[in-house]
Amino acid sequence: MRIIVMYDLPVGEAQDRHEYSRFRQFLARDGYTRLQNSVYTRLAVDTKNAEAAIVRLKANLPEAGLVQVLRLSEASF
Question: What molecular function does GO assign, one term (predicted)?
Fold first, then answer.
């Protein structure tokens, strides 16, 4: 199973840039790999592992902006 995270975050203010950087660093530390700018993917062994990764992601969401998450099977990916 794959988790795909797509985001569009504001970077106009210094605080926005800090939150953007913190979120991007979280994705890298949590095992996500960049596919494109603002698109990251992570391999999940099963549904339980994917749900745990999504819970961690929700706990690290920035205040502003849009973050979307897709769960796909390997065949769909």
Answer: hydrolase activity
